[in-house]
C-alpha cells in the first residue's frame, strides 16, 4: 500500500513539476522538485523492503517517516507561498533534517514513546499550520480546491493523531489488533501521500486561474478608467445604452457614459448621477425621444437636435447621433452614440441666415423703394386734392380722397410689416405650426413684386386650393420662396430681350400627406456640372460680385429642419425647384419618416 502510494505520489509530483505555476512565486519548481525526491525516497525504501526483505523495520519506519515529514513540510511551504507569506525553501527541509538526525541515534528507532515524541511535532505542527493557511486561502480567494485539501489534511491529521495516541496508550499490541491498527493508519497515510501532490496541483492551478482573472479584471478596470479619463476631456458625451421600447414607453439602461457633461449639458456629472433620459430638463420638440430611438433601431443610424435646460436656467442645443450596435434576443437593442453641444453652430447658422436675409433685402432694395414710393406719391396727391375740395366745400369728394389715403397708408404699413418680419427672421425656439401656402407666397411676392416688375418678369400662381396648409414656419418658408424668386430673377435678367421671362408657382397636395410647392422659370436652366452640388455651401453660378453661394445651402437647411426636402432639375425652358413639406395635421411619427427620407 505504501509502495503504491509512493509511486502515485511520484507521478503527482512529476505532474506538479511539469505544470508549475506562477502562484508559487518563482519557487514553483523547487517545491514539486523536493516533493518528487520525497516520493522517490518512499518508493525506493518500500521496494527494497518488499524485494529483498533485508531492510530492517526500523530503517523502513525511519525513512518512510522521513518522506512524510518532508511531504508535510512542503505542504506547509506551498500553502504559505499561496497565502502570500515569503517562506524560504530551506525551511521546509529543517523538520526532515531533525528527523534524519534523530534516526541516526539507535535508541530513537527502538523506543516507541521517544520515537513518537520526536515525530509527532514534526508532522502535526506543519499539518495544522497548513490547514489554517489553506482555510485562509479559501476564505480570502474562494479557492475551492484549497478547502478540499484542508479537509483532507485535517482528516489525515486526525487519523494519525488517533493512531499515535493509541500507540502510546497501548505500547504492546497483539498481532491481530496491531495489524488492524497498522491498516487503519496506513490507509489515510496512503491516501495522503497519493492525493496531496494532485490536490496541491489543483490548488495551484485554481489559484492561478483566479489570479489571472483578477489581473484581467484589474487591467480591464484600469483600461476603463483610462478611457473615462480620456473621454472626460472631450467636448462631447459618448454613450452606450440598452434600449427597450414597449409600445410608446421607452426604457433606457445606461451601460456607459463618458465625456464632459458640464461643457455639453451645463450640468456636472454628479448632478446627473442616476439620470438616464433627462426628463424634466429636456425639450425634444414635436418628435418624442421614443420616436427618435425607434427610427435609430429601424434605420440603423439616426441623428436629431434637441434642447436641454442648463443648471443656470438657460437653454443649450444638443445634437445626438446614435447608431444601432446590436439587437438583443429580448427584443431590445444596444445603441452607441454621442452628444454634441451645438450652441455655437446654431449661432453661426443664425448669423448666416441673417446675412442671407440682408443680402436678399439688398437685392430687393430697388423694387422695395418703388413699392414704397408709389403709395406715398398717391397719398401726397390725394391729400392735395382733398385739401382743394375742402376749400371748395365739397365734403363728399374730400372724404373719398381721405378714404383713399387710409387704404394706401394701410398698404404701405403692410409692406413695411412684411419687410420687418422678413428681416427679423423666425424665432430660434419657434416650433412648427399650420401655415397657409397662398399667404406665404403672397407675402414673398409682395416683397419681390417691384423687383420682378422692373425686370419685366411675368409671375403666375396656380394653387387650386387656396386653403392648402403645410406644417412649418411661415417666415422661414417665405425666406426660401424669396430666395428662389431672386435666383430666378437673376437668371431671367441675363436672357435676351426677346426671350420670354416667366416664373410659375404651383402648389398641390403630394403623396404621403405632403404638399409639393414648385417654382419654375424660363431662364435656361442650371449647368449640369453644378446640379449635383447645388445645395452645398459656396456653390454659385453667379459672378463673384453677385452671389455668395450660401443662399441655396441655407434654403436646404431650413426646409430639412421643417421635415421637408428641396430638389432642383432642368426642364425644357429652365430650372425647376420643388419644395416638399409635411401637410398640416400630420402626426409626429409621419414627419420623422419624411425628414429621415429627405436628402
Automatic annotation (TrEMBL):
InterPro entries: HATPase_C_sf (IPR036890), HATPase_dom (IPR003594), His_kinase_dom (IPR005467), HisK_dim/P_dom (IPR003661), HisK_dim/P_sf (IPR036097), PAS-like_dom_sf (IPR035965), Sig_transdc_His_kin-like_C (IPR004358). Keywords: ATP-binding, Kinase, Membrane, Nucleotide-binding, Phosphoprotein, Transferase, Transmembrane, Transmembrane helix, Two-component regulatory system. Residues 367-585 form the Histidine kinase domain. The keyword Endoplasmic reticulum does not apply. It comes from the Bacteria. The chain crosses the membrane at residues 33-53, 60-82, 88-109, 116-138, 150-168, 180-204. One of its GO terms (molecular function) is ATP binding. Its EC number is 2.7.13.3. It catalyses: ATP + protein L-histidine = ADP + protein N-phospho-L-histidine. It is an enzyme of class 2 (transferase). This is histidine kinase. It comes from Falsiroseomonas stagni DSM 19981.
Amino acid at each position: 500500500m505504501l509502495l503504491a502510494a509512493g509511486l502515485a505520489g511520484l507521478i503527482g509530483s512529476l505532474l506538479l513539476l511539469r505544470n508549475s505555476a506562477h502562484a508559487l512565486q518563482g519557487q514553483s519548481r523547487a517545491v514539486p522538485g523536493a516533493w518528487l525526491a520525497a516520493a522517490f525516497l518512499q518508493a525506493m525504501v518500500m521496494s527494497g523492503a518488499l524485494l529483498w526483505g533485508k531492510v530492517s523495520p526500523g530503517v523502513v519506519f525511519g525513512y518512510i517517516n522521513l518522506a512524510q515529514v518532508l511531504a508535510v513540510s512542503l505542504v506547509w511551504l506551498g500553502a504559505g507561498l499561496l497565502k502570500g507569506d515569503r517562506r524560504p525553501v530551506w525551511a521546509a527541509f529543517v523538520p526532515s533534517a531533525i528527523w534524519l538526525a534523530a534516526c541516526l541515534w539507535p535508541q530513537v528507532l527502538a523506543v516507541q514513546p521517544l520515537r513518537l515524541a520526536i515525530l509527532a511535532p514534526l508532522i502535526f505542527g506543519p499539518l495544522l499550520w497548513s490547514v489554517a493557511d489553506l482555510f485562509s486561502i479559501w476564505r480570502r480567494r474562494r479557492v475551492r480546491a484549497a478547502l478540499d485539501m484542508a479537509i483532507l489534511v485535517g482528516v489525515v491529521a486526525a487519523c494519525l493523531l488517533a493512531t499515535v495516541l493509541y500507540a502510546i496508550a497501548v505500547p504492546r499490541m497483539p498481532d491481530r489488533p496491531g495489524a488492524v491498527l497498522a491498516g487503519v493508519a496506513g490507509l489515510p497515510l496512503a491516501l495522503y501521500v497519493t492525493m496531496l501532490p494532485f490536490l496541491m496541483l489543483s490548488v495551484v492551478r485554481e489559484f492561478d486561474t483566479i489570479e489571472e482573472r483578477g489581473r484581467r479584471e484589474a487591467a480591464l478596470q484600469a483600461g476603463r478608467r483610462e478611457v473615462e479619463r480620456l473621454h472626460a476631456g472631450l467636448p462631447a458625451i459618448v454613450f452606450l445604452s440598452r434600449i427597450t421600447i414597449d409600445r410608446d414607453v421607452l426604457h433606457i439602461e445606461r451601460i456607459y457614459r463618458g465625456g464632459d457633461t458640464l461643457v455639453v449639458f451645463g450640468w456636472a456629472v454628479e448632478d446627473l448621477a442616476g439620470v438616464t433620459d433627462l426628463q424634466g430638463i429636456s425639450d425634444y420638440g414635436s418628435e418624442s425621444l421614443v420616436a427618435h430611438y425607434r427610427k435609430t433601431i429601424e434605420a440603423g443610424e439616426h441623428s436629431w437636435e434637441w434642447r436641454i435646460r442648463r443648471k443656470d436656467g438657460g437653454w443649450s442645443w444638443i445634437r445626438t447621433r446614435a447608431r444601432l450596435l446590436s439587437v438583443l434576443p429580448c427584443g431590445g437593442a444596444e445603441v452607441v452614440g454621442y452628444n454634441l453641444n451645438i450652441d455655437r453652430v446654431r449661432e453661426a447658422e443664425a448669423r448666416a441666415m441673417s446675412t442671407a436675409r440682408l443680402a436678399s433685402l439688398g437685392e430687393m432694395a430697388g423694387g422695395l423703394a418703388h413699392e414704397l414710393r408709389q403709395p406715398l406719391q398717391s397719398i401726397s396727391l390725394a391729400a392735395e386734392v382733398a385739401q382743394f375740395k375742402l376749400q371748395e366745400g365739397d365734403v363728399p369728394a374730400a372724404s373719398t380722397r381721405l378714404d383713399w389715403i387710409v387704404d394706401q397708408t394701410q398698404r404701405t404699413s403692410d409692406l413695411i410689416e412684411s419687410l420687418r418680419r422678413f428681416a427679423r427672421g423666425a424665432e430660434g425656439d419657434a416650433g412648427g405650426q399650420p401655415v397657409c401656402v397662398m399667404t406665404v407666397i403672397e407675402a414673398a411676392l409682395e416683397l419681390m413684386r417691384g423687383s420682378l416688375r422692373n425686370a419685366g418678369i411675368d409671375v403666375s400662381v396656380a394653387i387650386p386650393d387656396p386653403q392648402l396648409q403645410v406644417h412649418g414656419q411661415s417666415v422661414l418658408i417665405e425666406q426660401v420662396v424669396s430666395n428662389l424668386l431672386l435666383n430666378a430673377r437673376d437668371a431671367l435678367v441675363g436672357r435676351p430681350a426677346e426671350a420670354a421671362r416667366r416664373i410659375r408657382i404651383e402648389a398641390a397636395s403630394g403623396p404621403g400627406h405632403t404638399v409639393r410647392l414648385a417654382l419654375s422659370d424660363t431662364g435656361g436652366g442650371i449647368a449640369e456640372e453644378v446640379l449635383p452640388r447645388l445645395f452645398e455651401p459656396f456653390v454659385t453660378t453667379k459672378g463673384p460680385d453677385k452671389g455668395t453661394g450660401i443662399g441655396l445651402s441655407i434654403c436646404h437647411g431650413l426646409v430639412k429642419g421643417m421635415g421637408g426636402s428641396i430638389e432642383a432639375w432642368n426642364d425644357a425652358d429652365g430650372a425647376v425647384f420643388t419644395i416638399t413639406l409635411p401637410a398640416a395635421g400630420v402626426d409626429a411619427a409621419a414627419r420623422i419618416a419624411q425628414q429621415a427620407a429627405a436628402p
